[in-house]
Amino acid sequence: MAETILIETKTAGGNCRSYLMAGASYLGILCFVPLLMSRDDEYVYFHAKQGLVLWMWSILAMFALHLPGIGKWLFGFSSMGVLMLSVVGLVSVALRRTWRLPLISHVVALI
């Protein structure tokens, strides 16, 4: 059987600050703001760790540009993947849910 892509783990019970911090987690380098400032909020920390992995993936994709031949393709596909997963993360914050993103959740579990 196919595993579902979005897995709802829990709902958030926080305030507006928690939602803004969780949303900032998926906006590139801004993932460090909630990661450093909201370690005590489990909801924000969950999203911050996923945002950190997405940011690291985008940095690695930039290094792929230096590969001759396949670098531009690899960068393009990686950038599209990061963009789509960031949008899914922002949607999960807008719906006040925590969804484990595919491909990312395995790396987040190691952090």
Descriptive labels:
111 residues; mainly alpha; 59% helix; 8% strand; elongated; disordered N terminus
Please tally the helical runs, counting DSSP H or I stretches of 4 or more residues: 5
Give the beta-strand count: 2
Total domain units: 1
| DSSP strand content | 5-15%
> What sequence of helices (H) and strands (E) makes up the elements?
EHHHHEH
> Could you tell me how far the N terminus lies from the C terminus, measured between alpha carbons in angstroms?
28 Å
What characteristic shape results from the CA principal axes?
elongated
Integer-rounded radius of gyration: 15 Å
Give the neighbour order of strands across the main sheet.
1-2
Assign a percent range to the helix content: 55-70%
User: Averaging pLDDT over every residue, what do you get?
Assistant: 85
| Largest β-sheet summary | 2 strands, antiparallel
Look at the helices and sheets and give the structural class: mainly alpha
Q: Which residues sit in consecutive blocks of at least 5 with pLDDT less than 50?
A: 1-9
Membrane topology: Multi-pass membrane protein
GO cellular component, one term: magnetosome membrane
Function: Plays a role in regulating magnetite crystal size; partially redundant function with MmsF.
Family: Belongs to the magnetosome MamF/MmsF protein family.
Molecular structure report:
The chain is mainly α. Helix content is 59%, strand content 8%. The protein has one domain (12-108). Helix 1 (16-24) runs parallel beside helix 3 and helix 3 runs antiparallel to helix 4. It comes from Magnetospirillum gryphiswaldense (strain DSM 6361 / JCM 21280 / NBRC 15271 / MSR-1). Residues 1-17, 72 are cytoplasmic. The chain crosses the membrane at residues 18-38, 51-71, 73-93. It is found in: Magnetosome membrane.
